[in-house]
Description:
The complex is a heterodimer. Chain A is built from no helices and twelve strands. Chain A has strands at residues 3-6, 11-14, 19-21, 23-26, 32-38, 44-50, 56-59, 62-65, 75-77, 86-93, 101-103, 107-112. In chain A, strand 7 (56-59) and strand 8 form a beta hairpin. The model of chain A has no long low-confidence stretch (mean pLDDT 92). Chain B is mainly beta. The mean pLDDT of chain B is 92. Chain B contains no helices and eleven strands. In chain B, the strands form two sheets. In chain B, strands 2, 4, 5, 6, 9, 10 and 11 form a seven-stranded mixed sheet that branches. Chain B has a four-stranded antiparallel sheet with strand order 1-3-8-7, with no helix packed on it.
Amino acid sequence: GNSVTQMEGPVTLSEEAFLTINCTYTATGYPSLFWYVQYPGEGLQLLLKATKADDKGSNKGFEATYRKETTSFHLEKGSVQVSDSAVYFCALRRIQGAQKLVFGQGTRLTINP
Amino acid sequence: SQTIHQWPATLVQPVGSPLSLECTVEGTSNPNLYWYRQAAGRGLQLLFYSVGIGQISSEVPQNLSASRPQDRQFILSSKKLLLSDSGFYLCAWRLPASDTQYFGPGTRLTVL
């Protein structure tokens, strides 16, 4: 079946630190992959996406590369800010059906000044 | 531009009471619509999706139901709430030709 596994949180870093949040997936075919971010008390916002192998999604200094060989889509940022504190969700779009998203369990990130 | 609204933003209901959460989308036509639930400290679970008026698919058996009376309106309901229905409910929409879902602000439901 289709599934997404994220590194367990919570993750706490200091401002300007390097961030990596691991995400691996299991799927049939070649799903599209997404990172969503949820700020406190809010809904989810699309952060970035990649639709095929070796694609790199990027936004707001965050990057993730679609790695088919390792079935991974790790999220990275070179220098985090306090405003990046949020919960991050990795997701894949199922090929079959009405394009339903399968989410990882989320990783809570806290950045200290 | 497209916008998605959910209301109410927060809701506290007693066990056994009915529920109605509403989601509306503006600025687009014939979207696919989705209801998700996020239980405390957990990920998102897809509850229902709809590809058109009156067309509802359920992902998991549960105490909830969904309806789509109009093209851009999606309603989540229950006749009798359970404690386990507490959570953060998110509505999302997607254009059929796109693979990206856009989420509403959510409704936080507490069942006491």
